UniProtKB/TrEMBL annotation:
Cofactor (UniProt): heme b
Species of origin: Streptomyces longispororuber
Lineage, uppermost ranks: Bacteria, Bacillati, Actinomycetota, Actinomycetes, Kitasatosporales
Name of the protein in question: Deferrochelatase
GO biological process: iron import into cell
Sequence segments annotated as region (Disordered): 33-52
Its job: Involved in the recovery of exogenous heme iron. Extracts iron from heme while preserving the protoporphyrin ring intact.
Amino acid sequence: MADHTISRRRLLGTAGATGLALGAAGGAAGYAAASSGSSGGSDGSRAPLTSLGSDEVMFHGKHQPGITTPVQSCGHLVAFDLAPGTGRKEAAALLRRWSEVARRLMAGEPVGGEDRDTDVARDAGPSSLTVTFGFGHGFFGRTGLEKQRPAALDPLPEFSSDRLDKARSNGDLWVQIGANDALVAFHALRAVQRETGAAARLRWQMNGFNRAPGATARPMTTRNLMGQVDGTNNPKPSDDDFNRRIFVPDKPADADPAWMAGGSYAVVRRIRMLLDDWEKLSTKAQEDVIGRRKADGAPLTGGTETTEMDLEKTTEGGDLVVPLNAHARISRPDQNGGAAMLRRPFSYHDGFTAKGEPDAGLLFICWQADPLRGFVPVQRKLDRGDALSAFVRHEASGVFAVPGGAGPGEYVGQALLEG
């Protein structure tokens, strides 16, 4: 048996040196292109593909991984409730265990300790694995930390389009896992669940996917299960106001406790797409619902995907080219007081209903410095008049406080649990 102390990343590197590593272009499966993306040469040939498995995301940092990381092709979302008798001390021990497991797996190393690793991902590298941890509203009461609960964790308002399943909503603890290899992602999910022990109980778990990096000839914005380009106007780290909109400042205002410095808030929604109804529409009708061309994501007013939409442009008959209730019009930041959020979703498919309808849609995850200024105003407006609302159903929901990243020798949430 091979020495298990050798990291999977090192094993993959050895394979690559002998020409055995599999390749894939570092395309944009989400809203940012991976740095290792390939493109065609001047003679029409394609540049050599790089190995997906060797891509590593750092666990330690100012912010937790899995927020600005390009969205991966495989994802798992899981929520836990603290078990009766679990208090602050036990919660701290749990976050310490979780953080160490995440650090090791993200570096391409086994879980550690004899018989603790299941070997599911033994032959793979890190594969851009990220593990992200957050706290729900109920966590603070159960651990005696009510005074440290951020105001941003107040329950979201009710929306008329909600059909929420309480059993699949909220939770004391939330974990987001992403990777560009399905076995690596499952391995991390299983490791997190095994390390939970008796401290917490599973509340709900959801699985998602995206287009794999390298599946397209060039990096592209991903498509959702409606076939629409999804994420064109996502905030970018290069934007001057990106950090202000997405992350809690280093010196939080009164609404945010000090332990949230460098953190963010995640709103998670399971949005079922009524695909049978959607697919009955003509392409033209679908484009009017969204406000963009289906083929390339460009606005109906012309140009390319990134061209500014002309909201005042009319047809020869005097009608608006982009309908008043088009999703892209209603959701624009400049139509919502500048509200912005970083969308980082996964698609999901959980089989078919007894009627043969696909139980499929979007595991919507958005990141912002304050949900009351990010998600809520946009969703309120969509709830009142979005043409897309007739084709989607919000079935689960949650909001989580995701603290800043852990430094070397620290665990996620340490400033809260030991402060």
